[in-house]
Design a protein that fits this description.
alpha/beta; Nucleotidyltransferase, domain 5; 44% helix; RNaseH-like_sf; nuclease; RNA-DNA hybrid ribonuclease activity; endonuclease
Length: 211
């Protein structure tokens, strides 16, 4: 289960008084064929966490949607956070890895207080303007990264739900842009739209066939 051992090892103190500001960062949406990539940066003050909340937090992918939404709503009231995203156009222009890093940079910039240290899920550090440490599988072992994954997932899913109201043929209200059979069938029947990542297969292949 996620914990605060890594944060405390880097100087996090209850009340954030006299210690170092440590944020956890995660992104959601590298793999989908459509929609932005969204990142969240979270700073947790252990003194503000409601009793029992830490035991409920986990990697967002392991949580049922209703549980994830409930945790998201609770976290917004007791942590400091920043949201950043990179658009489909930016993904196509600079590639998904660099767009993910850009979303992380924007998430850190959106924090109310600049962090001293960032813990990032993964094995490649973005340039954040502060000391940065990568944690492979960080959303399973770091409470701040797991919290960031929950908030980022809920935010991105909401973006895709809203886009599904306008683009009804791809099933984004359930697949949130991933390459499910329903999404691929929608592309085959109706083509792609402006929210698809043109450099991703099979989008690029569909465009070539259309051209």
């Amino acid at each position: 289960m996620p914990h605060l051992k890594h944060e405390k090892a880097h100087g996090l103190l209850p009340g954030l008084s006299g210690g170092r500001i440590v944020c956890g960062i995660d992104e959601v949406g590298r793999g989908p064929l459509a929609g932005p990539v969204v990142a969240c940066a979270v700073v947790i003050d252990p003194a503000r966490l409601p009793r029992g909340l830490a035991k409920k937090i986990d990697d967002s992918k392991k949580l049922a949607p209703a549980v994830r939404q409930s945790l998201h709503d609770t976290l917004l009231d007791c942590v400091s956070y920043g949201i950043g995203q990179a658009s489909v156009d930016e993904i196509d222009e600079i590639n998904i890895l660099q767009a993910s890093f850009l979303a992380m940079q924007r998430a850190v910039e959106a924090l109310p207080t600049k962090p001293d240290i960032a813990l990032v899920d993964g094995n490649r550090p973005p340039r954040l303007g502060c000391e940065t440490h990568c944690l492979i599988g960080g959303d399973a072992i770091s409470l701040t990264i797991a919290s960031a994954s929950i908030i980022a997932k809920v935010v991105r899913d909401k973006i895709m739900y809203d886009l599904a109201l306008e683009h009804t043929v791809y099933g984004w209200e359930t697949n949130v842009g991933y390459a499910t059979p329903e999404h691929l069938a929608g592309i085959k029947r109706h083509g792609v739209c402006a929210h698809h990542r043109q450099t991703f297969r099979p989008i690029s292949q569909s465009l070539s066939i259309t051209d």
